[in-house]
Amino acid sequence: MTKQNEKEVIRIDLTKQQKDQVKKEIGKDAEAIELTADELESRISPRIF
């Protein structure tokens, strides 16, 4: 991955159900989550050793 791709922010809009879950868990409203490519990759395929 290039440096530019590592810093690129990826936005994922939440569904109504996901928004409700976020509100219930942390007490804040959220419309979307934004992650860098590295953050997203680490959540999709965590490295387990």
Q: What fraction of residues sit in β-strands?
A: 15-25%
- Structural class, from helix and strand content? alpha+beta
Q: What is the count of helical runs?
A: 3
Given as residue ranges, the uncertain stretches (5+ residues, pLDDT < 50) are none
Please tell me the overall pLDDT.
Answer: 87
Fraction of residues in helix: 40-55%
Q: State the major sheet.
A: 2 strands, antiparallel
Secondary structure tally: strands: 2
Order of neighbouring strands in the sheet with most strands: 1-2
How many domains in all?
1
State Rg: 13 Å
**Oligomerization:** single chain
Order of helices and strands: HEHEH
Gap between N and C termini, in Å?
A: 22 Å
Shape: extended
Write a compact overview of the structure shown.
Helices cover 49% and strands 20% of the residues.
Observed structural traits:
alpha+beta, 20% strand, single chain, 3 helices, 2 strands, extended
